[in-house]
Amino acid sequence: MSGAEHSDRPKQMAIANNRRGGTASGKRAFPWVSALVLVVVIAAAVWWFYGATIRGLSLAGTGYGAKNACSCRYIAGRDLNSCEGDFLPGMEMVFLSEDEATNSVTASVPLIASQTARYRDGYGCVLDSPEG
Predict the structure, then answer these.
(1) Using CA atoms, how far apart are residues 58 and 49, in angstroms rounded to an integer?
(2) Which 3 state secondary structure label does DSSP give 34?
(3) Residues 78-91: pLDDT tens digits?
(4) pTM for the full predicted model
């Protein structure tokens, strides 16, 4: 084998690797795509197995949060921000918002569940009927 033939061989191998989607060093060009696909597959599997449980717990948490925050806000007369301090441990994902025009407080877990409680004279704070 001559010296010229021997020196061309690494260049040909590097070109062949690039044609197959790899780089000259043999590493993948986009490893983050594989990681993203893996994360999506894991998230879908978790939702498939635990979705009903997560939704049920979220509905219970938002119902509790809306009712207690409504009572705190419209019966006790406290500020809505101070009412969040009454939440139980584990309710960090429940967010509150109020509508002073309708005397209501909505508690939500983003993209999963949301419930509203309204103050009604003679009844106090009552949860609205759940949707669906």
Answers:
(1) 16
(2) helix
(3) 999 998 888 889 88
(4) 0.66
Burial 120-132 (b: 16+ CB within 10 A, else e): eeeeebebeeeee
Helix ranges (DSSP H) in the chain: 3-19, 31-70, 80-83
- Contacts of 78 by beta carbon, 8 Å cutoff, 6+ apart: 72
Q: How far apart are the first and last CA of the chain?
A: 78
Residue 14 exposure: Cα atoms within 13 Å on the Cβ side: 7
Note the pLDDT tens digit of each residue in 121-130.
Answer: 999 999 998 7
Residue 108, pLDDT above cutoff 60: yes
Residue 103 burial (C-beta neighbours within 10 Å; 0-12, 13-18, 19+): middle
Q: Are 74 and 120 in contact (CB under 8 A)?
A: no
